[in-house]
Amino acid sequence: MIRVERAAEARRTRESWSAFELSHAQEELPTAVELPEHPGLWQVAGGEISPYLGEGLEVAYPHATPDELYAAAARAWPAWREADPEVRVRLCLEVCDLIHARAARFVPATMHTAGQSAGMAAAGSGTNALDRGLEAVAAAWEAMRRVTPSATWTGRFGKHDVSLAKRYRIVPRGVAVVVTCASFPAWNAYPAILANLATGNPVIVKPHPTAVLPMAMAVAACREVLSAAGFDPGLVTLAVDSAERPIAKELIKHPACRIVDFTGSAAFGSWVEANAFPAVAYTETSGLNSVVIDTFDEQVLRALAGSLCLFSAQMCTSPQNLFVPRRVFADFADGLAGAVRQISTVPRRAAAMLAAIQSDSTLSLVSRMRSAGSVVLDALPYEHPEFPGARTCGPLLVATEDRAVYGEERFGPIAFLVPVDDRDEGLARAASDASTHGAITAFCYSTDEGFVARAEDAFAWAGAALTSNVTGPMPLNFSAAYSDYHVSGLNPAGNASLTDDSFVAGRFRITQSRRPA
Amino acid sequence: MIRVERAAEARRTRESWSAFELSHAQEELPTAVELPEHPGLWQVAGGEISPYLGEGLEVAYPHATPDELYAAAARAWPAWREADPEVRVRLCLEVCDLIHARAARFVPATMHTAGQSAGMAAAGSGTNALDRGLEAVAAAWEAMRRVTPSATWTGRFGKHDVSLAKRYRIVPRGVAVVVTCASFPAWNAYPAILANLATGNPVIVKPHPTAVLPMAMAVAACREVLSAAGFDPGLVTLAVDSAERPIAKELIKHPACRIVDFTGSAAFGSWVEANAFPAVAYTETSGLNSVVIDTFDEQVLRALAGSLCLFSAQMCTSPQNLFVPRRVFADFADGLAGAVRQISTVPRRAAAMLAAIQSDSTLSLVSRMRSAGSVVLDALPYEHPEFPGARTCGPLLVATEDRAVYGEERFGPIAFLVPVDDRDEGLARAASDASTHGAITAFCYSTDEGFVARAEDAFAWAGAALTSNVTGPMPLNFSAAYSDYHVSGLNPAGNASLTDDSFVAGRFRITQSRRPA
Hints:
alpha/beta, homodimer, 17 helices, 517 residues, 5-stranded parallel beta sheet, 7-stranded mixed beta sheet
């Protein structure tokens, strides 16, 4: 529990801390996952094709029906919900440790489904995602611990004192469905799975059909830890579907569903938020992350180029729209294109930074966006030094003033340079887009303190996390567990925040009993 | 702030405490309410008819459209949301103090709308409701205070340390609509209004059309305190409607609505929960509160009779269904009827306990329920010593095994005695009804520790607050601020709990900004 307490402290102070040491060891791509006692018939899913190899993964998973998964959860629940919260929290930490111990196996699993680089798979989807998971466990632990388990109450009624002995219990809400995304599943899955488990709820994990493997491995880790501790592994199960026959809606509308954690498209996220009832929904979707330029130099261009290249901008924190005053537009566009080229045209750098493109549909989108404005930098594939068949694509930079083009999320290595009359117009548009269409991050470059302060206010009310004037080695859109709140819940980019109290407080309820003392 | 800290401590320890001294002073029934600068045309509402006098109240209120109310909120919001949370919390406490200072005016306002007795209006709807309000303010204060306002973060990237200065802000969610009920509005209204204000949200209060006056007076108190502190009173407004032209749905579906607090019928509560999105909803509705009898004596019968009589069982905590083993059914039924008669047939006692019937429709329901089973005790009016025109009605006790009769909430002085084969059948039915139909409270009488323990488990999972073996001067269904969690959120009787962390944690969000340190 020392690490959970330490995590809780880091969450309070929001200083830098990690519970997990980063290693870059890497094993072979797993060809099977062990899920003993898991309901369902085993078969290859079919949707998993390595972005690096262009070949199907051919890993078999159990295919259970929603009713089978809910039945497993129902059988497993009673012992878990009655377990001491501290026992649950300890086992959540063991799950983190087991996943961490297998990091070298998770790295290729993440690479060959999400398309991330080895480095990002080890850090962002590895230690950082585990830290986000532990952060959620710590938040849940603190929230449960604030509930006094018992009290003696003495009140006066007329001339008499009445003393009651009261007992307060943490009662978990019920079965949780965790729907994960294709390109960065671990980062949201770990907090959701672990927050649900810590607060006593069974979990059904429904991965994106193209990125099942890392989630199946995480489910396996949960089940192993739970089984070893004497709990029914039915507490954590895997729901496998396909693009042709999706089952997320069926899982969410199941009468026993009480909690939904969703990461994915804004369209489906809105459906979840509006239709999850009687379940509570925690969502992260997407939006229009913007950069507001007032002043810039070479360092700024390098930092922005890095952010546009990082994992080919397939991150929910990647910027898409750059608002640039007309007076400096041409210089900025030229400079940025040059800075991007320094990464995207050098295969070794490109491989480490851009990695691979998760989905074929992203390449089609890039193609279509070429004609959406004036191309500042064309999107070109690079030759991956290690995987010649990798699906790669450098950033496309398009200059446009057409709101119909940039006023929508264009997922992938696509950025729009939008000329504006001045910095204030840029800020106003960016903040308004964040409010209206959602945004997780925002970026601002200015040497004018007054303007930075105005930007901080504007994005605070719009609900986007603002990074101002940051250059140097840290990726601009890096988000630190325990320190950076991820998603505000104030705009359409999601209603849940990693990790505020409201992310955990509704996953359990409190019931009480009282009797004469 | 000392009292807020003290309230937070009471909420942690859940011991007995009150910030407000009870007085039984009583002024004349107010004939007007002052709401300077409030939008809307002033006219008498028409729905308010005193249950004690049988006459219309003829108080005029401003009738504003939803758009006018939202516009007022929008104008008032910026200064309030940017105010220091401590300033907001202090002003919430001032609102409590001003309402408390006017307690003698609130008492007749509550009596002549809700039909409560003077004693209940002063205590339950007065000091206890204010304590519930302060409890919510304390919870909000603690939740906001847990968010560190700033941090310096230093992380290592490659060979370089990166230091960032981070700022975290509490950002209120937006306009809140508080829909209050007819018979006990203050108790839920104060926590909702004050939790919203403390966390920075404007509030539109939509009272039940038959019980506007006490809510209008509360709104007036809020506006006076806010205006005196230099804030725009548009932060708290009153929405007045009628049974013929209800406006709650229009208020809730307004595009600017972000929070809904609802107290009222289960049917409308379900609509709110399912349709509030994108607003978050906090509801308390109703359900089937049960009593499970194993053993009983004279004291038990007196306690139960008191609870059935208290405010003519027009409380969300009043028991309705009493499950009684057949072997003792006749004795129990006779004894309970006798114990009720000792209250209901003595006008002085009846006036203090039963008070008046809020709505005419309750009397019709009582009439219909007479033929729903075998009448154990008929419901008879009593002559109120002070108000000869008062609408009164003693409890109706009906013996029935028909689930269609007792398996639904029958609001008012109606209780069903349900014979069961044994105590375990009674417990199973009561707990199942709580899960399926909702329940806020449950009661159990048994000298067998093992059975009480089973009842505690069963009602804990069903989400009803259990009171076991309590007799004596405390009304059985009394719920103490700071100590008793009210509504669990685990069954259809509502999704919000007074006052757990989840009641406040979602009313504000957190946004952050960061820059080089």
